Automatic annotation (TrEMBL):
GtrA/DPMS transmembrane domain segment(s): 257-375
Gene3D superfamilies registered for this protein in UniProt: Spore Coat Polysaccharide Biosynthesis Protein SpsA, Chain A
The UniProt record lists the keyword Acetylation: no
UniProt GO MF annotations: dolichyl-phosphate beta-D-mannosyltransferase activity
InterPro entries: DPM1-like, Glyco_trans_2-like, GtrA_DPMS_TM, Nucleotide-diphossugar_trans
Protein name: Dolichyl-phosphate beta-D-mannosyltransferase
UniProt entry keywords in alphabetical sequence: Glycosyltransferase, Membrane, Transferase, Transmembrane, Transmembrane helix
Family designation: Belongs to the glycosyltransferase 2 family.
GO cellular component, one term: membrane
Localization, UniProt: Membrane
GO biological process, one term: polysaccharide biosynthetic process
Record-annotated Glycosyltransferase 2-like domain positions: 22-184
EC number: 2.4.1.83
Length: 381
């Protein structure tokens, strides 16, 4: 009897899979790559490892640098993402690109203490844990050279984080941890991928409460390059928390989009009022039209920076984006007024509910259309 294709044995060869994958997200770290590889190699003697850089197509040629090393050493690998940005999503994609049973996430600027890696692996196995976290806040750990403002921002974020995950984790903001692959694979579809708080997200979304331990380390000063995490990460963090609290029903981008829309009303009035004062009420139409355009434009830029931070349009794309945004929102405004008028005139609802329904339909329309036409993802085909 003929054997079926699926019954045939898999080919075997003598090439053991790595036990530990070290995932290193990078953006503009070309000067660091060599040293990261050297140090990982030195510290992981006796362990089968692979080192995966996930680079968001850094203009400084980080990807090329990694590729050059990978040509000499097959344990070093590269995921080069095109047209994408974001620390969390980079870590997730790195973790999904390996078959290793354990994976560590570590910054690519040497601020995390790589000498902790063997200990982390030893502890997770010996104590049968789900995850081991490199912590700045347990005794023996430290903050390095952070200024007071950044320290207090981090403390604030830490506190909300602890509340969110109901775990007594001292450093939920850490970007340095070693986790069992099965834990991530079990919850990866629920991870938000927005922002930079990947550890917090894993704790929040894991299928069961995680068995963890924190090991102290001192956050090193940066020797070269600069931090990529600016104030906008605090906004992203708040977005992620909002998403966790309201659940998957309402997309978090819609919340951000609506918040910016609400702010647009203030922008509108801030333009309309002085124009009317200067030009008189005869100029209402032109003033209203100007205010509308200014508000739409400011909404466009704010959404581009905040709501669609990971797909931000730049250069010539900005003009195309702005045009499509204004076109979409003009239709949205017409729909808003039309529906509110229909409901109100037809006696279906009072002025307040009519207006609210109009605003809601307009907002959903604007959001849905601009999500597809203004900030559409680059497609391979
Ligand atoms: N692929 C990719 N895409 N990597 C990125 C991006 C991005 O958009 N942004 C930053 N990175 C990389 C950096 O190149 C670096 O290797 C690492 O992520 C951390 O970024 P830094 O810009 O050096 O972060 P930091 O030093 O300010 O922040 C640290 O503190 C946080 C705790 O509050 C990091 O340790 C974070 O991991 C940590 O969460
Ligand atoms: Mn750093």
């Amino acid at each position: 009897m003929a054997t079926r294709i699926s019954d045939q044995p898999m080919p075997r060869h003598n090439c053991p899979p790595p036990e530990l994958a070290v995932i290193v997200p990078t953006y503009q770290e070309s000067d660091m790559v060599d040293e990261v590889v050297r140090r990982v190699e030195a510290v992981l003697q006796g362990i089968d490892w692979e080192l995966i850089f996930v680079d968001d197509d850094s203009p400084d040629g980080t990807s090329d640098r990694v590729r050059a090393i990978a040509r000499q050493d097959s344990r070093v690998r590269l995921v080069q993402r095109i047209g994408r940005r974001g620390l969390s999503s980079a870590c997730i994609e790195g973790m999904m690109s390996t078959a290793a049973p354990f994976m560590a996430v570590m910054d690519g600027d040497l601020q995390h203490d790589e000498t902790l890696l063997p200990k982390m692996l030893e502890v997770i196995q010996a104590e049968n844990l789900d995850i081991v976290v490199g912590s700045r806040y347990v005794s023996g750990g430290g903050m390095g050279d952070w200024n007071a403002r950044r320290q207090s921002m981090s403390r604030f974020a830490t506190r909300i984080g602890q509340y969110l995950i109901h775990a007594d984790l001292q450093d939920p903001m850490s970007g340095f941890f070693l986790v069992r692959a099965s834990v991530v694979q079990g919850c990866v579809r629920r991870l938000s991928g927005v922002g930079f708080k990947i550890l917090l997200d894993i704790f929040a979304e894991a299928e069961h409460p995680l068995r963890f331990r924190e090991l102290p380390f001192t956050f090193r000063a940066r020797e070269a390059g600069s931090s990529k995490l600016d104030n906008a990460v605090l906004w992203e963090y708040l977005l992620m928390l909002t998403q966790k609290l309201i659940g998957p029903v309402i997309p978090v981008r819609f919340i951000a989009f609506s918040a910016i829309g609400g702010f647009g009303v203030f922008v509108h009035m801030a333009v309309l009022w002085p124009m009317l004062t200067l030009l008189g009420t005869d100029a209402f139409l032109i003033s209203q039209a100007t205010a509308t355009l200014v508000a739409m434009t400011s909404n466009f830029f704010l959404n581009n920076i905040l709501t669609y931070r990971d797909m931000r349009l730049r250069g010539r794309q900005l003009i195309r984006g702005w045009l499509s945004f204004v076109a979409a929102c003009s239709v949205g405004a017409l729909a808003n007024v039309g529906i509110a008028d229909y409901l109100f005139q037809g006696g279906h609802s009072g002025w307040f509910l009519s207006a609210l329904a109009g605003i809601l339909v307009g907002a959903v329309w604007n959001y849905a259309v601009t999500a597809v036409y203004t900030w559409k993802r680059p497609r391979a085909t």
